[in-house]
Amino acid sequence: MDEPVAPFREKAxxxxxxxxxxxxxxxxxxxxxCSYCIVPYARGRERSRALxxxxxxxxxxxxxxxxxxxxxxxxxxxxxxxxxxxxDLVDLLCREIPGSWRLRxxxxxxxxDNFGLLETMARHPERVCRFLHLALQxxxxxxxxxxxxxxxTQEYAAFAAAARRLMPDIHLGSDVIVGFPGxxxxxxxxxxxxxxxxxxxxxxxxxxxxxxxxxxxEMSGQVPEAVKKERHRVLEALGESMAAAFRxxxxxKILPVIFETIDGRGIAHGWSDNYLAVSxxxxxxxxxxxxxxxxxx
Length: 297
Ligand code: SF4
Prior knowledge:
It is a single chain. By secondary structure, the protein is α/β, with parallel strands linked by helices. The chain has helices at residues 39-43, 51-63, 86-96, 115-123, 141-146, 153-166, 185-198, 225-249, and strands at residues 13-15, 21-25, 27-28, 47-48, 68-72, 80-81, 84-85, 102-105, 131-133, 171-178, 202-207, 254-262, 267-272, 277-281, 290-294. Among the domains are: 1-129, Transcription Regulator spoIIAA (2-Layer Sandwich), CATH 3.30.750.210; 253-297. The strands form five sheets. It has a four-stranded mixed sheet, with helices on one face. A four-stranded antiparallel sheet has the order 14-13-12-15, with no helix packed on it. The radius of gyration is 20 Å and the shape is globular. The protein starts with 12 loop residues before the first strand and ends with a strand. The structure holds iron/sulfur cluster. Iron/sulfur cluster is lined by residues 30, 32-34, 37, 39-40, 74-75, 109.
């Protein structure tokens, strides 16, 4: 039986050293029990902070001059306070906090149940960054089932397509694992083919490593390290070419950018809402403000 879980306050508010981003932790823990992951055992069951408390933290961060708020958690999509989910929280923050600031969601998990979140994000284009990091983990349904992931590749693709339809030029990033136990060459090829169709703007590739106490650690068909290394190399190269294609697709577009730092050569560096690195001579820009900038790569 599930144990009741207490709300939490630990490390709820983090400040980015350049005072341009405030990290607001809204959720902790995970109930998903993916077969390779230690997080549900190590960090406990899902729990969320009270919505009013999150709202107060966000107000405080905007009043303190942070132009970007980043909502964080193990899986921010699991946020839930008294029946109100992440889309309710996003909607409330966007409506209730005036001023020039923007909101970024981190650590989102794809789910066929989350289409409402996409609609809410799209309703606030001036506020919500066109950015989602949706951990895919594998592009073969057989391996996804063995991983105990909660979606099929078809559902994942439908979610990504809806995100792109509702928020054109959105930055879709993902995590993938190579060398999960039982992953054959055919599974890997299938994974690469699916990932290619997703055209991610960034891809984090991980080689599977055994975590004691998880079901996958006991599975047969552990993949040799040399094979994992080669598959890792192939997918990383694919990730780099997809990232380059995304950058190319944005050339000439006017993007809302927050410049954060100035280097020793007088160049200001910042990030667009769709998470592209942008640089300009510091004399041309203002730091820690949302400014429209033409993307030149
Ligand atoms: S991989 Fe993510 S969703 Fe799966 S159990 Fe770990 S933290 Fe939860």
